[in-house]
Amino acid sequence: MLATKTLSRKLSWSLVAVALTSAAVVCAEEEFEVATSPGKVVLTTKGKWHANPEYPWALVTPSKKIEKAEFAFKDGVVSVAGPKGEATLRGGVCNGDQCRSFHKIVTIP
Length: 109
Fold this sequence. Notes:
Blueprint: H1 2-21, E1 24-28, E2 32-37, E3 40-45, E4 50-51, E5 58-60, E6 65-67, E7 72-74, E8 77-81, E9 85-95, E10 98-108
Antiparallel strand pairs: 1-2, 2-3, 3-8, 4-9, 5-6, 5-9, 7-8, 9-10
């Protein structure tokens, strides 16, 4: 009985840890969605939209500006590490010859 309770508590804490560390979608648009997780911001494009690596991407925080060189671009997903707190993600997405730039305020856990 004691072993079952101990296992149950460990499982409960494991689920809490997973819930706290998983990404949370903070912005969903027709073209993309933005999610945050501890120390990270991830943009995932939708449908035929793709991230435009030619755009001057940046993550602007109160203490620093993280430039495009620190962003990772791979298969419709753009990610960047950032400090905890509020930040503004700037980027651009395209679908054929139709491009859109954006500024999204996010909170990084």
